[in-house]
Specification:
By secondary structure, the chain is an alpha/beta fold. The chain has 4 domains: 274 residues, Succinyl-CoA synthetase domains (Rossmann fold, 3-Layer(aba) Sandwich), CATH 3.40.50; 164 residues, Rossmann fold (3-Layer(aba) Sandwich); 66 residues, Dna Ligase, domain 1; 113 residues, ATP-grasp fold, B domain (D-amino Acid Aminotransferase, Chain A, domain 1). It is built from 23 helices and 30 strands. The two termini are 48 Å apart.
Length: 693
C-alpha cells in the first residue's frame, strides 16, 4: 500500500486553485476539458476567475477540496499546505521551486523541503517543483500550461520526473490514448512508485510508463511490481543516465566492466519492468500494451509488398529477443495459390505488388500468413501524403487485413517504416478498428520485445511469489581499505569458497619453504599490487626450486612480500565475479569473462543482491563465453555446478558482511572440469572486517 492515499487527489470532485497567473491557467484547462466537478479559485484580491467565484483564503472554501493546485512562492506554499492539511484536504500539487533541487545554490532549500513535508502530515503532496498532473479520463487538470491531450475512456498512464518531457509526450501524434500524465518533481513525500500504485487502482488504466532519472523508493518499486503482476498491467521504463561514469575509486575491473547503469537494468529486470531507450519506443510500447495487452511469447510475423521492407524487418530482430517462426507447409500451399509461382515464400513475407488492390487475393494471402503461430503479425504499409496523393488502394489492404483477422482471430498490427507516413488521423481510424498502428520499425519491435518481456516476467513462477527485499545499506564507508590479495583470499576461504592454497613469504628462503608446503608447480606473484599481470608481477608454472629462487629474488626487489599458490592446468575458462556497493547502497553482482579477456571482451551480466534462485543459471547462460563453459566444439566442459556454488557462496558472504563491504572481485575464478577455484581476489572494506588466521 502507498504511504499516502492518492485516490481522492487523482480523481477529484472538487479542485481548489491557489495563486495568480499560473493558477488561472489551471482553471482554463479544466474548463477546456469540461471538468464536471467543483472549481474553487483562491486569491486574496480577485473576485472571480473565468466566471468562477474567487475565495480569499482556504478558510473560506465551502469544504475541504479533494485536490489543490498551489501556485505561489515556496514560503507561502508551506503555509497553505499546513492549512489544507488541517482541514483534511485530499492532497495538493506544489508548483513552486526552490526546495531540495536548489540545495547547491541555497543553503535553506533542504530545510524548507523538510518543513513542507512536516506541514503536509498525512495529506499527500505531489512535488514540489513540478507541473502536477492531468486526468484525461475525468477532465481533471492540476496543470498550469498547455498540453496536447484530450478526454479518453481508457488509456495509458505516464509518470515523469521532467515536466517538460511530460508536455512533449502529450503532444504525440501516434494515436496513443493517454489516461493520466503525472510529474513527480522532487518526490519530497510521494514517490513515483506511490503514484503508479495509485494509478493501478483505476481499472481504466491499461499500462503505465515511467520516465526515471534516478531510483530512490526501492521498497515502493518492489510493492509496485507485485501489484502490477497481480493486476497483469505492464510497466515500461525509460531510464536516464546510461553513460558509464568514472570509477576512479574502484580497485577492481568490476564497475569499469559493467558501468553503474548495469544496476538499473538489473533492477528493472528483477522487477519485471520493460526498459526502452528512446521516447518513441516508450510511447509505442505503451500503445502495444494498451491495444494488445501483455504478450505470451516473442514470435512475430511480417507482411509487406517490398523486399526491401521485408529485409529491414528481418534484420531488425538481430539484437532483440524476438523470433520469426517459419511458414508451415499448409501456409505455403495457400500462399502459393494466392500469389503464384514468382514470389519467394518466407516469414517475413514480401508478397510483391502483383495482388495490390485485389481484395480477394490480399485477403487470401493475409489469412494464410495469419496461420503462423505468432503473437503478433505486422502489415508493413506506409500511407501516402494525402495532400498530393490518393490512399484508396491502401485502405483495400486494411480491409483485407480486417477480413483475415476476423477469419483467424489472430492479433494484427499496422507498421509504417516512417512515423510521418502514419498520420494521426489514420492511427485513430485503425485504433477504432482495434488495429494498433506503429510508426517506425525499430520502435515497433522495441514495443513487441517489451510486451514479450513483461509477459515472461509476469508468468515466471519465481516472480509470482513475494521476493526477498533488495539488499541495501544506507550508511557509507568513510575510507575503505584495499585488502591485500592474501588477506582477501583468506576471508573468502573462511567463508567456504574454493580458494587456491596460498602462502605469503618475505624472503627467498621463506618462499622455498612455502613451496615445499604447497608443492610444485606453483605460481609466484608480487603482493600488495592490483592488476599484477600488467606489471609483469605474475610468474606461472614455476616447477623447480632454482626457478623459484630466481623469480622470488627479482620480485622481492619490487615489493615487501610475494605470494605463492598452487598452479592449475587444464582450465576450461576464466570468469570474473565481482560485487560492488552502488552509490545508493544496493549491491550489484557482475559475472563476466575473466583474466586477460575482461576489458577485451567486455562480456558481462549483472544482478542485484540477494540473487533469486531462478536468476543465476540463466544469467551466466547470457555470457558470450558460456558455450566455452559447456564444452565448445567437443572440448572439455567446465563444472557448471561448482561455478554456481562458488558464486552463491560469495553472495551469501557479502549479504552477511554488507555493512562493512565496498567491493569484492574474484578475477579469475578458474573454471576446471571438476571444480572451480578462486586464484585471485581483491576486497575493499572498512577496518571492521578483519582476517582471522
Amino acid at each position: 500500500m502507498a504511504k499516502h492515499d492518492l485516490n481522492r487527489l487523482l480523481r477529484p470532485k472538487s479542485i481548489a486553485v491557489i495563486g495568480g497567473s499560473w493558477s488561472r491557467s489551471v482553471i482554463e484547462q479544466c474548463v477546456r476539458m469540461k471538468y464536471e466537478g467543483e472549481l474553487w479559485p483562491v486569491h486574496p484580491t480577485l473576485h472571480e476567475v473565468h466566471g468562477y467565484h474567487c475565495y480569499r483564503s482556504v478558510a473560506e472554501l465551502p469544504s475541504a477540496p479533494d485536490a489543490t493546485f498551489i501556485g505561489v512562492n515556496r514560503h507561502l506554499t508551506i503555509d497553505i499546505v499546513s492549512q489544507l492539511s488541517a482541514v483534511s484536504a485530499g492532497g495538493a500539487v506544489c508548483f513552486a521551486s526552490g526546495f531540495s533541487e536548489a540545495a547547491a545554490e541555497d543553503g535553506a532549500a533542504t530545510e524548507l523541503q523538510q518543513q513542507l513535508i512536516e506541514a503536509a502530515g498525512s495529506m499527500p503532496i505531489v512535488g514540489p517543483n513540478c507541473y502536477g498532473f492531468i486526468n484525461y479520463l475525468d477532465g481533471a487538470l492540476l496543470w498550469p500550461d498547455q498540453h496536447g491531450g484530450k478526454r479518453v475512456q481508457s488509456g495509458v498512464a505516464i509518470i515523469t520526473q521532467s515536466s517538460n518531457i511530460a508536455i512533449n509526450m502529450t503532444m504525440q501524434r501516434r494515436g496513443l490514448p493517454i489516461a493520466y500524465v503525472m510529474t513527480a518533481g522532487n518526490q519530497a513525500q510521494v514517490s513515483i512508485a506511490d503514484m503508479a500504485m495509485a494509478l493501478l487502482d483505476d481499472e481504466r488504466v491499461t499500462s503505465i510508463g515511467l520516465h526515471v532519472e534516478g531510483f530512490g523508493d526501492y521498497r515502493g518499486l518492489q510493492l509496485l511490481a507485485a501489484k502490477a503482476r497481480e493486476k497483469r498491467v505492464g510497466i515500461v521504463v525509460i531510464k536516464a543516465g546510461r553513460s558509464e561514469q568514472s570509477q576512479a575509486a574502484m580497485i577492481s575491473h568490476t564497475n569499469s566492466l559493467s558501468g553503474t547503469d548495469a544496476a538499473s537494468s538489473a533492477l528493472l529486470e528483477r522487477l519485471g519492468f520493460a526498459r526502452v531507450f528512446s521516447i518513441p519506443s516508450f510511447l509505442e510500447a505503451l500503445k502495444l500494451l494498451h491495444t494488445c495487452g501483455i504478450l505470451k511469447g516473442n514470435t512475430i510475423a511480417s507482411m509487406s509488398c517490398s523486399g526491401g521492407e521485408a529485409s529491414l524487418m528481418a534484420d531488425a530482430i538481430s539484437d532483440r529477443a524476438l523470433q520469426y517462426p517459419p511458414l508451415g507447409s499448409q501456409q505455403q500451399q495457400a500462399l502459393r495459390k494466392a500469389l503464384g509461382p514468382m514470389v519467394a515464400l518466407a516469414n517475413p513475407l514480401d508478397y510483391h505488388t502483383y495482388i495490390w488492390s485485389d481484395l480477394e487475393a490480399m485477403t487470401a494471402t493475409f489469412t494464410a500468413m495469419l496461420q503462423t503461430p505468432a503473437e503478433l503479425t505486422f502489415l508493413v504499409i506506409d500511407f501516402p501524403r494525402i495532400d498530393t496523393c490518393a490512399d484508396d488502394s491502401w485502405w483495400v489492404a486494411i480491409d483485407a487485413l480486417l477480413a483475415a483477422r476476423d477469419a483467424t482471430g489472430a492479433a494484427v498490427a499496422v507498421l509504417a517504416t516512417l512515423p510521418e507516413n502514419l498520420p494521426e488521423s489514420v492511427c485513430e481510424q485503425l485504433m477504432a478498428m482495434n488495429i494498433p498502428a506503429f510508426g517506425g520499425i525499430e520502435e515497433a519491435l522495441d514495443a513487441v520485445a517489451a510486451g514479450a518481456f513483461i509477459g515472461s516476467a509476469i508468468d515466471h513462477e519465481q516472480l509470482k511469489h513475494p521476493a526477498k527485499p533488495l539488499l541495501q545499506v544506507h550508511h557509507p564507508i568513510g575510507s575503505p581499505l584495499a585488502l591485500s590479495e592474501y588477506d582477501s583470499k583468506k576471508l573468502l576461504l573462511n567463508a567456504g569458497l574454493p580458494v587456491a592454497t596460498a602462502m605469503q613469504a618475505e624472503s627467498v628462503d621463506e618462499s622455498v619453504r612455502a613451496a615445499e608446503s604447497i608443492g610444485y608447480p606453483l605460481v609466484i606473484k608480487v603482493s600488495g599490487v592490483a592488476h599484477k599481470t600488467e606489471q609483469a608481477g605474475v610468474i606461472l608454472n614455476v616447477q623447480t626450486e632454482e626457478a623459484l629462487r630466481t623469480h622470488a629474488e627479482r620480485l622481492l626487489a619490487r615489493c615487501d612480500a610475494v605470494l605463492l599458490e598452487s598452479y592449475y592446468t587444464g582450465a576450461v575458462a576464466e570468469l570474473l565475479v565481482g560485487v560492488v556497493r552502488e552509490p545508493d547502497g544496493l549491491f550489484k553482482l557482475t559475472i563476466g569473462a575473466g583474466g586477460i579477456l575482461t576489458e577485451l571482451m567486455r562480456d558481462s551480466v549483472s544482478l542485484l543482491l540477494p540473487v533469486l534462485p531462478h536468476q543465476l543459471q540463466p544469467a551466466i547462460e547470457k555470457l558470450k563465453v558460456y558455450p566455452v563453459l559447456e564444452g565448445y566444439r567437443g572440448q572439455a566442459a567446465a563444472d557448471i555446478a561448482s561455478i554456481l556454488s562458488a558464486i552463491t557462496d560469495l553472495c551469501t558472504w557479502v549479504e552477511a558482511n554488507a555493512n562493512h563491504l565496498c567491493e569484492v572481485e574474484i578475477n579469475p575464478l578458474l573454471c576446471l572440469e571438476n571444480s572451480a577455484v578462486v586464484v585471485d581476489a581483491l576486497i575493499s572494506a572498512s577496518e571492521t572486517l578483519t582476517v582471522q588466521d
